[in-house]
Specification:
Layout (H helix, E strand, L loop, with lengths): L1 E2 L12 E5 L5 H9 L6 E5 L20 E8 L8 H17 L4 E4 L3 E4 L2 E11 L3 E8 L26 H22 L2 H9 L7 E5 L4 E9 L5 E5 L2 E5 L3 E2 L2
Helix pairs in contact: 2-3, 2-4
Length: about 240
């Protein structure tokens, strides 16, 4: 069902809110219905039957967890920055539920609680200069370790009660605020906020690349969102990869 614009505390004006009992994945559903909608929208499902994360990995969704996708205008060159907009918005929404202790942001698209994965973000480009921002949060339960891909961070569930619809009512306004900051002043404010909460900043990390692994001290993120490493051969910027546990 769609909620009228503005209903609910702080819901961003002009953004449609769609809640489904079930779908294959909110990303696929958002892509399916995007052609018939001109404005931004969020679609949330209480159950996903075929959820997925980055690199085609499956995203397990126990009952009570959060799965939603937002669709927004974004020039193709700036679309990847929405991963960081979503990350800082997610952290804000989670802080509103449980406080900030233990929350951190892992490059490029995870939110951690006590060093374990609490939430993930997936971006997909859409026709017409739009981007779909998929968000999954372990609100009620975390998948067991034997169900996770090899090398994945252990997962953790939120340690405070929160319903999926209640969480969307926190996330959508937070995303709108940070999206507004990006549009008004570029990436600088979002980048600074992300780095303020970055996991392992200043530590030595290993990053899995499409071909091999690179190691170095994590210096932060560049103005285009690339991970900046100080390696034995000098500074290196990584645009795509996975920071290993």
């Amino acid at each position: 069902m769609a909620r009228p614009e503005g209903e609910g505390a702080g819901w961003p004006a002009g953004v449609e809110r769609i809640v489904l009992p079930e779908c294959a994945s909110t990303m696929a559903e958002a892509r399916r219905i995007a052609d018939g909608r001109e404005g931004p929208f969020w679609v949330l499902a209480h159950r996903q039957t075929s959820g997925r994360g980055r690199r085609g990995r499956s995203w397990l969704m126990p009952e009570g967890n959060f799965a939603a996708t937002g669709v927004f205008e974004a020039p193709p060159a700036e679309a990847p920055l929405r991963s960081f907009v979503a990350a800082v918005a997610l952290r804000d929404a989670l802080e509103g539920v449980r406080g900030q202790a233990g929350l951190s942001l892992k490059w490029p698209n995870d939110v951690l609680l006590g060093g374990r994965k609490l939430a993930g973000i997936l971006l997909e480009g859409l026709p017409g200069g739009r981007v779909a921002v998929g968000v999954g949060v372990n609100l009620a339960a975390a998948p067991p370790s034997d169900a996770l891909p090899e090398g994945a961070l252990p997962a953790v569930a939120l340690d405070r009660p929160c319903t999926p619809e209640g969480f969307l009512d926190r996330l959508a306004p937070a995303f709108a605020r940070w999206e507004g900051a990006l549009r008004a002043g570029g990436f600088a404010e979002v980048r600074a906020e992300w780095m303020r909460h970055a996991a392992r900043l200043g530590e030595r990390v290993a990053v899995r690349l499409p071909r091999g692994v690179v190691e170095g001290r994590m210096e932060g993120i560049a103005p285009d969102g690339a991970l900046v490493l100080a390696t034995v051969t000098g500074e290196r910027r990584v645009s795509a990869g996975d920071v290993l546990p």
